[in-house]
Queue: 3 jobs
Job 1
Amino acid sequence: HNDCVYFTNKLLTLGVEYRDKFPQDENGNDSALKVICTFLDAVPTFRELADKSMNEMIDFQKAQLSELISPRIKYIKEALGSNEGVIEWTEAETALTSGIYHCRHLSRVWKTVLSHDVYGRTIGSLVDTLYKLYLDQIIGAKEISEQATHFVSALFRDALKSTSEFFGSPKDVVEATKEASRYCSLHHKFTAIGKFMDMTLTDITMGLSDGTFQSVSSSELTALVLAAYTDSPRRRSLIQLLRAESNK
């Protein structure tokens, strides 16, 4: 990838660099080669090669990340209805640790060889894969006990703290989090659902107004409310509000 990017940049100026080195003809006129000396036609080819090699590497690492995590969290959505810690919760924590370790190893290698922006987009793509694996399970749960909400909240906080360190110094949490949100498209959604787990119905209603759940769809938030809270007038009112939002 880096070789192709180098050749791409070099080809943009190579013609200009050597154009004036062609000798004039016997009449003192510029050589015809001076006019046509350009390598721009080769630039798209090298750009495509760079993109292809990078995308293949990312797809391979995404597959490895999924192999590490998916089997261990396969049944977590059914286990969230439990009123006490179960083996599925422990497996979900272990899977997160394995996924973070895998990403951290890649982060240390890639940070030294990729440009800042390419590194951010690359590791951000992997972090999004990790986020999505957990989000799909949590949002798909039919029942979430109070104990499970505390578990998920803590799990998501650990994930956010660990992944933000890939984008900045642990000593500057604010800047690291800002960079993480820049390169991870699911960062805001993951953060919002983590916060949801510690909220009351009143808090959630207020969150709709202040933009906390801007990245979460009304149908997803409705599913979470139905799973995490027992039937009550306040819950019915919130569900009605969410369904009204989804119909707009």
Note: Residues 43-69 form the longest helix (27 residues).
Job 2
Amino acid sequence: VAIRYRGSRLGVAWALLAVGLLFNLFAEVSWSVQELAFQEDVPFPSVSDIGYVGAYAPTLLGLLLMPQAPFSALSRTKLGLDALIVTCALAILSWFLIVQSILNSTGISLQAEVLSVFYPFADLAMVFAAFVLVARAGRTRFALAFGLLAAGYFATAFSDSVYAYLTEAGYETGSYADLGWATGYSLMSLAALAALHPMAAFEPRTRQAEPTPAFWPSLAPYAAVLPLALLLLDKTRGGGADTALTAGFLAVLALIVLRQVLANYENIRLNNELSDLAANLDVRVKEKTMQLLRRRSQDGEGGGSTVTRPNGADEPVGGLRSPPRK
């Protein structure tokens, strides 16, 4: 796909994704060699983590470089707020469900602790980029490729977070966490095939062709805050809510309120623009009508035979002219 669209921003984005997948390839092969060929438990961290860590930067940059962002500044701000709300809610959940248990565990090295904390937050950045990619894809012929690509990175990010949680309890190849990686890589391959399809020819979007926003991205922030509310309720029943959890929940609610304020402002602005457009159109119609009436009045004063009748009524049926009157 990068070769097909070389020389464009789209080609650069896919090239960066390919570089990230090459890092993942190195990590997966080195892991398999250590576990299958050498028949030994893979330590954590290991040489495979070089590939896993190195894949994040080019992949994140490639997802954000996909040239499908909306043009208006207000649309970009709303989209950024939606992605920020989802990411913040997932970050709070990840902190209380995964990261805290890792930090409280004993008997692991500093490198293992740093990587165990790095992976969940790096995956949150991937979720942020994938959400932005899907939300701004619109109804273009590239939407299928972008949707598959984002779903693939969602799946791999989920398995990475589960793996970080299982490192404390003990991870073994063949667990349910592997389904996310297998599914994610398959969806990425399908996304590339969809992008290579002739019907998916990329068409740069103009400002006039900016699509109508989809409905589902506006529901994502509210869906993201739901598990956060359930976690807060569970902590409250267990003997008092954590201060950090309460503060995080209130921060996410504040972002949702800010997003709603921006949506109301956009609706008011669009209604005002529509009213101005209707008023200008009414004025122009009246001006054109007066000009037409004035012209007909002048033609009538110059001679009745020169007055143009509506709908071609000055011409007789069949194209025959009446004989001149005496």
Note: The two ends are 82 Å apart (CA to CA).
Job 3
Amino acid sequence: ELFLLNFVVDYLLLLAAGRLCGEVLRRGWLALGAAVGAAYAAAVFLPGMGFLLHPLCRGAAAVLALLAGCGGSRRLLRVGLVFCAVSAAFGGGIFALQLLGGGGLALRNGVLYSALDLRFILLSGAGCYALLTLVLGRTARHTAARRELAPVLLTLEGRRVALTALVD
């Protein structure tokens, strides 16, 4: 259950970060990145793996999951920062749901986990994904009606190309 839960959550986080950054997403690579993150989460609970709880190991696991899921991106730093922001927002959303639902958090092997039902967490994750994508996607969208986009005609050595430019 721990691997499955983290796989689904990591997949949704990578998917949300990629979509918010306008990346071309490849589901297989996202699944590989999610599997890396889920394997790390499960490995933390294995005997003798306490060193994985070190912040550098946690950061390295996040970077590996991001590289596996979105490594082909030309804007990997941007996707990484959005991934961190979406992860923090998702964590805060789950924490709020646990507080509202009366469920508590427990600490085991230095990792917070919940006694909440797996279906509840997965549905919450899907809901948080949908909400974050909707809210953040709308705020990042540019429109011609708000005079943020303008048609541009570029000419170089007799060649012309028509583009849409973002007004800065």
Note: The chain has a mean pLDDT of 78.
